[in-house]
Amino acid sequence: MGEVIVVTSGKGGVGKTTTTANLGMSLALLGHRIALVDADIGLRNLDIVLGLENRIVYDVVDVVEGFCRLKQALIKDKRLDGLCLLPAAQTRDKSAVSPDQMRGVCADLARDHDYVLVDSPAGIEQGFRSAAAGARRAVIVTTPEVMAVRDADRIIGLLEAMGIREPELVVNRIRPAMVRRGDMMDIEDIIDILAIELLGVVPEDDVMLVSGNRGEPAALNGSSRAGEAFRNIARRLRGESVPLYELERTRGVLGRIRRLVGVERS
Amino acid sequence: MKSRRSKGSQASPPAGRRQAKSGPAATTPIDEAPGPLADACEPLVEVDEFATDATPLATGEQPVSLAVKGEPLRSELILSGERGDGDTLLVRKTLRSGQHVGHRGNVVVLGDVNPGAEVVAGGDIVVLGALRGVAHAGARGDEAAVVAGFRLRPTQLRIGNYIARAPDGDITGPELPEVAQVKEGRVIIRPYHSAGRPRPRL
User: Fold this and answer.
1) What's the CATH code of the domain at A60?
2) Interface pTM (ipTM) of the complex?
3) Which of A114, A247, B20, B60 is the most core-located residue (most Cβ within 10 A)?
4) pLDDT tens, A2-37?
5) Cα–Cα distances in angstroms (integers) from residue B13 to residues B9, B10, B21, B159, in the given order
6) Which residues of B touch A (CB under 8 A)?
């Protein structure tokens, strides 16, 4: 029986879909059987990030409405054998899948896969509630911005109310130089507010933009720093202890020293 | 991979015929939609590229329309700006992502069909613009149906019970009207002028 993990954030545009795709790729690279579920019905993107858009025949709405069986709707990744995608419907909306139905789909997928990653839509309404319904664990994605952190905090509260007690945090799109100058929230500040386990930090990387457009997740790119960060996060997600990425650590220490010396506003 | 536009090895006329892959395609037939299935079978759908040995959508006796999914056609979802005159529906607007047009007869779109949009027709589909989304002609199993457009760059083409997808990578193609149809068990895209009878040389 595999684990169902929802990837969510509250705020839009912080990198939920990219994170889902890259964690899925990384875990599949580690030899796990992975199912990715796009729960963003009506605004589907995960298929594009994975470069699988042109293979979609059935989708998650067809599955819950009984037009096809679950296995027919799964799209096998073109690069990795262990990875498959259950795409969202584009011509429907969030009301097409209820939390109960999503719970059923996730349970079915968890039978044949080690990890089921559910890409949640932005927001706190039904789309999010359905996406999280089948999950036991949650990955919260945020960026070092006050707005994103505020929304993440809200989501963590909602998840707790739904019974997901220990969500884990990915801080996306951090720019070390800006943090060093004190122009960007640093990891310590974010952890201070959210008080959840840090899974990892992903540096801003131009490769991410290109890979999203091309449908080739950065996790497959050996030279991308963001790709490396995602591969490390995937290993932590499955319980390995991987030291935080170099830049994450120095920044943390430096930040602490700066604050001690009073050079930097906290 | 930009091989969609490369000339194939097939020697048959007309000269404009294109073929993406000449080798045998590794495809898995999609089995009948509601029917029973051995759970041990290879579960995942492989959709073949255009102009290859297109995958039959259904192996059952009754043709199964995938995009329409049973009765009735989703004509209640028809958008404003359309006029139906019996057999042919005229859509006088660009179909954007998430928009769906289904009609029992032919569909003509005066505009583009963007990625994420779907056109499903019992008959032919003509797009007087760029077709970038999904088109399903002959959705009730008519394999003689065609899809024609000023620019054919579809994400996926479905004709009757055949399905074909765009090649991976950038979708490129000639800047001229083209028509897709099923020929000898594959979905073929050709320049429009050679779709019907050969034009007399002047």
Assistant:
1) 3.40.50.300
2) 0.82
3) B20
4) 999 999 999 999 999 999 999 999 999 999 999 999
5) 12, 9, 17, 21
6) 30-31, 33-34, 37, 39, 43-47, 66, 69-70, 77, 97-100, 115-116, 118, 155-156, 163, 165-166, 168
